[in-house]
Amino acid sequence: MYDREKNMAAVAMPVLIALSIAHFLNDLLQTTVTSAYPIIKDDLDLSFTQIGSITFVYQIAASVFQPLVGMVFDRRPFKGSLELATTFTLLGIICLALAPNLAGIYLAVFTIGVGSSIIHPEASRITSLASGGKRGLAQSIFQVGGNFGGAVGPLIIAITVVPYGRSHFLWFVVLSAVSYAVTAFISRWYNSYLDTHGRNSRAAVFRPRPLRMGATVAVVVLICVLIISKYIYLESLKNYYTFYLIEKFGVSVQLSQVFLFVFLAATAAGTLVGGPVGDRIGRKYVILLSIAGTAPFSLAMPHVGLAATVVMSFCSGFILSSAFPAILLYAQELLPNKLGMVSGLFFGFAFGIGGIVAAVLGNLIDAHGIEFVYRMVAWSPLIGIIAVFLPDLQKKLR
Questions:
Q1: Contacts of 221 (CB under 8 A, 6+ apart)
Q2: Does residue 334 contact residue 211 with C-beta atoms inside 8 Å?
């Protein structure tokens, strides 16, 4: 069944590279939220609970709209969707740089979150269209851009914003202009694709579900549990790792951003591996190894020194991040005719869980201390063992 799809079109590599660059720029701009936390905390004298609430607002905005965007654009494709996403992100960054109080920060991160909720399902859908059937490779190319952008963002902010103040986030407007140029190129290709294939494109690639509806629902629930186990640990590092390093080891804010970059760079590298390896050995096995395989490093990290902590965070980020391309592609194979909706649903669910986890962890840190929380969340990757119960869809589709 996949052989037929592979023969339908060649891989549109320039488009995949452009999508990766667009994802890189989007997620680089999105990192202004978490990277601004130490600055915002000092500027507005916030508690960790309030920091968690900022993440909650951002992640909810970035999650609730994603499946809706995917569902709507599955039915009525919108050729300017990526440019619309960039507009929301740009407005949010301007607001983040200038907001005088916590309410303004909420508005800023909500607007940035809406931009994210548009670009992820739409760009993921276009990635599938441009893949020429090599969906694991294409999805990894797309996602590594986002993860690398998320990794570079804190490093750039440490150099350009931390020494000078929050208003210097306005320099990121320049990157928004570059993002517009890249998304305009993608939109031209997408416009041409829609003009060429029109309404008949769906029928040409229609594929039945590999499982019956009851089994499909059960597997979706299982995938959601796996995403929760992944994001409990991932969000603890994304949102509070700099504070952990500052409190436990006494490093500076700038150096903590550098160590955050090391972790996020590892997540980018792991993402690039997850898709192609899943093409070869099966999505199920990548999901199992990437989540449960993080546990030895997560469990060791609270008990080692600074240098070993950086190494443990790198290993955890690399192994854990390889799961998401496999999870997303597994879900798309589960519901093969709803690419936009599925992408939006699982990106959105991941963002939503991230927001809830960040808010809960913020409260726990205020109540029990950051080291206690890191010892607690270190156990969460072990939940990934339940991936053994996932059916092997690639065997069913052969």
A1: none
A2: yes
Question: Would you list the DSSP string of 276-304?
Answer: HHHHHH-HHHHHHHHHHTTHHHHHHGGGS
pLDDT digits (tens, 9 = 90+) for 159-210: 888 788 888 888 888 988 899 899 999 989 988 887 776 544 443 445 677 7
Residues with Cβ within 8 Å of 4's Cβ and at least 6 positions away in sequence, in order, are: none
Q: Which amino acid is at 218?
A: A
Question: pLDDT for 104-127, tens place per residue?
Answer: 999 999 999 889 888 888 888 888
User: What percent of the chain is predicted at pLDDT more than 90?
Assistant: 20
Q: Are 202 and 347 in contact (CB under 8 A)?
A: no
How many angstroms separate the Cα of 50 from the Cα of each of 44, 154, 207, 241, 269? 10, 20, 46, 17, 32
Q: What share of the chain is helix, strand, coil (3-state, %, to 5)?
A: 85, 0, 15
Cβ atoms within 10 Å of 177's Cβ, excluding its own: 11
CA distance 252 to 71: 45
Which pTM value belongs to this model?
A: 0.68
| pLDDT (tens digit per residue) in 216-232 | 888 888 888 888 888 88
pLDDT above 60: residue 212? yes
Exposed e or buried b for every residue in 10-26, given b needs 16+ CB within 10 A? ebbeebbebbbbbbbbb
